[in-house]
Amino acid sequence: MKRWYLQPDDTTIYYDPKRAPIAATLHFLTALMLYSYLIPISLYVSIEIVKVLQSIFVNPDLNMYYEEIDQSAHARTLNLNEELGQVGTIPLDKTRTLTCNSMEFIKCSIAGVTYGWGVTEVERAIAGRKGQELTEDDNVANSEAKPSIK
């Protein structure tokens, strides 16, 4: 009886009513060994099913509706709930009030191609050094005559 788990033919100890505590312990250990591979797989599958259901519930949620662009939330990933729970910092200003940091796209240059028609602060500073007044209309009118910005 050294290696009871390697002898499936010798099963008299499993059904001996006189040694019920030993039989119960051996049944428990056998079940633990047999199901040790099955439980993590089923747990993984059930967690993925829960993530799918939670992402389905995010879409019609009225609390996730953004009024400014008239659009509701669209869950495009299963890890959305995990990412929503990981808010590390909240931006505050000097008075410790919550701020809304919104940015506007003005202009950029990617591989020598200019995108955007706005006047940047750098262009205003260069025009100020030359003694010129640069406005939005001047930049839009001169944008087609200018070569690509490198």
TrEMBL record:
Keywords, A to Z? Membrane, Transmembrane, Transmembrane helix
Q: Which InterPro entries does the UniProt record give?
A: ATPase_P-typ_TM_dom_sf (IPR023298)
What is this protein's record name? Answer: Phospholipid-transporting ATPase 12
Task: Give the transmembrane ranges.
Answer: 20-45
Question: Is Lipoprotein among the key words of this record?
Answer: no
Is this entry keyworded Ubl conjugation? no
Its gene name is ALA12
Source superkingdom:
Eukaryota
